[in-house]
Design a protein that fits this description.
By secondary structure, the protein is α/β, with parallel strands linked by helices. About 65% of the residues lie in helices and about 10% in strands. It has two domains: about 300 residues, Up-down Bundle (ABC transporter transmembrane region fold), CATH 1.20.1560; about 240 residues, Rossmann fold. It is elongated and about 115 Å long.
């Protein structure tokens, strides 16, 4: 929880004044039993109606003042809690956005979403309840005990025995339930993951008529959450009945021994009534405290999950910005690069070396799982090489500020990702200062202007994350987005797969004509898409098994020749 405290620094005033006003409300509440005792012992005993009405007016005034203080506390509590929640969400979103691919893979996207939304709400609610009740309840318990001592010391011993017993029981319940609430939150992560997978893959699920199986799988997950929550609830549910039992036994003892003291003349009826009221106040305060502890327990479990995210190293935390680095003829170089994913037993990429000059094209081909995309991900430093060096303009990518590095690189990913908004919005991911002329030029190179120009609002057409476009249209907009501003290095990660051969050829010709100064890394399953590259790397099980031009590889590389012959026979 300490890791989250800095987000309260702008709300110190509310954090201080809120409990103060709640304490003032509690003070007025503690005075009420004394007024009640006076009404009984003086007004009723002496049949003084005027005194009774005056004391009733005092009680009403105490109630109105207490209400005003409570409303003021609630105002400050809301300001603090919701302001804190807003700052925390913004900080978490910014942190998640800065995490490396390894951190995101390790934590899981579904867990990150659940923490950003569900856990943040839980912690926010905890802050709200802390300001409103965390000081009031203990103060009422202590204050009621002190007030009881001023009335009758001997009977107050019952208070001093009952209250610690309830406090000990509450502590035991808290120790038991904190780990259980953490477990429930982890299972909620799994439910979010299943929901996300089912929504993203709804077409696949329906294509295989697999709805009932997926519903059953989610049902088991939801049932598991319910079982865990039920086990936690069984323990938490003991708080109220056990606390009531202990406190009612205490009230019974007060009435029993108080009655004896009234008979002996050492206690008045009004004082006994006040003692019972104070015992009831302690009971209610402890019950509120018990429920408050449940809220704090959940908030503590959520706070630890949020703190673990905030404590992760940001991708750029150890890479200070470097001075401007001049462009060099050798734009990209791999020196004996190997890479393995975290918790993986082997390397995804093994001992790769090559150089790519300005204006050259490098093709990468290989079977599924051969390491093509893993190799491409090392260039913009999405992942760091386990061994060797990846150099851009002669500088190791690890030494770059990541935002500066990626300004030099344009990427069209294997999985096309477009965002809800207009075509122009998607094309301006490199910066708001990009002109329509640059956007149109990129779309023409990517063979996308032909269909974009026919859209109802052209660049202002809302594309709903690409759901209202065909696969080939999405790919061409994605490629055009990567071409904007003519990056030094252009990475096309198998992003031509949805294009027909004619469009593929036109796009490659346009790249040669309009992007001649960029070094292009083109990953593809098609030999025809790579045959005019200056150099082609053939990947197999993470290793380079061949390197050269299309004709050289047909003569010298058996793997490449098999891929080519298979594709040519399929085309025939």
């Amino acid at each position: 929880m300490k890791r989250l405290l800095p987000y309260l620094r702008n709300y110190r005033k509310q954090l201080f004044l809120g409990p103060i006003f709640k304490l003032l409300e509690a003070v007025f509440e503690l005075i009420v039993p004394l007024v009640t005792a006076k009404i009984i012992d003086v007004g009723i005993a002496e049949n003084d109606t005027g005194y009774i009405f005056r004391m009733a007016g005092v009680m009403a005034l105490l109630g109105v003042c207490g209400l005003c203080f409570a409303l003021t506390c609630q105002y400050f509590a809301s300001q603090c809690a919701f302001g804190f929640g807003t700052e925390l969400r913004n900080a978490l979103y910014k942190k998640i956005d800065s995490l490396s691919y390894e951190s995101i893979d390790e934590t899981g996207a579904s867990s990150l979403v659940n923490r950003l939304i569900n856990d943040t709400n839980t912690v926010q609610n905890g802050v709200n309840m802390f300001i409103r009740l965390a000081t009031r309840s203990p103060f009422l318990v202590i204050g009621a005990t002190v007030m009881a001592l001023t009335i009758d010391v001997k009977l107050s011993l019952i208070f001093l025995i009952t209250a610690p017993l309830i406090a000990i029981f509450i502590t035991l319940v808290m120790k038991k339930t904190v780990p259980m609430y953490k477990n429930v939150q982890k299972k909620l992560d799994r439910a979010v993951q299943l929901t996300r997978e089912n929504i993203d893959g709804t077409r696949v699920i329906r294509a295989f008529s697999n709805q009932s199986e997926e519903t059953e799988r989610f049902g088991k997950c939801a049932g598991d959450i319910a079982d865990s929550a039920e086990r936690t609830g069984r323990i938490s549910s003991l708080l109220n009945p056990v606390s009531f039992t202990l406190m009612n036994l205490g009230i019974t003892a007060v009435i029993w021994f108080g009655g004896l003291r009234i008979d002996g003349g050492s206690l008045t009826t009004g004082e006994l009534t006040a003692l019972i009221n104070y015992m009831t106040q302690i009971l209610l305060a402890l019950l509120v405290l018990a429920n408050l502890i449940i809220t704090f327990t959940k908030a503590l479990a959520s706070a630890e999950r949020l703190s673990s995210i905030l404590e992760m190293d940001s991708e750029t935390s150890d890479t200070p910005a470097k001075a401007e680095i001049p462009e060099k003829p050798c734009v990209l170089e791999f020196k004996n690069v190997s890479f393995g994913y975290k918790n993986s037993s082997g390397y995804a990429v093994k001992n790769i070396s090559f150089k790519l000059q300005k204006g050259q094209r490098l093709g990468i081909i290989g079977g599924t799982g051969s390491g093509k995309t893993s190799l491409a991900n090392l260039i913009p430093c999405f992942y760091r090489a386990t061994e060797g060096e990846v150099l851009v303009n002669g500088v190791n990518v690890n030494e770059y500020d990541k935002s500066e590095l990626r300004k030099k690189i344009g990427i069209a990913l294997q999985k096309t990702v477009l965002f809800s908004g207009t075509v122009r919005d998607n094309m301006k991911f490199r910066g708001e200062n990009i002109s329509d002329e640059e956007i149109i030029s990129a779309l023409k190179t990517a063979q996308g202007w032909e269909f974009v120009s026919k859209m109802p609002d052209v660049l202002d057409t809302y594309i709903s994350g690409g759901k209202n476009l065909s696969g080939g249209q999405r790919q061409r907009i994605s490629i055009a987005r990567a071409l904007v501003n003519s990056p030094e290095i252009l990475i096309l990660d198998d992003c031509l797969s949805a294009l027909d051969f004619s469009t593929d050829l036109k796009l490659r010709q346009a790249l040669r004509e309009n992007m001649g100064s960029s070094a292009v890394v083109m990953i593809s399953q098609r030999c025809t898409s790579l045959q005019d590259c200056d150099n082609i790397i053939v990947m197999d099980d993470g290793e380079c098994v061949g390197m050269g031009t299309h004709n050289e590889l047909l003569e010298n590389c058996e793997v490449y020749r098999e891929i080519y012959e298979t594709q040519m026979s399929d085309n025939n």
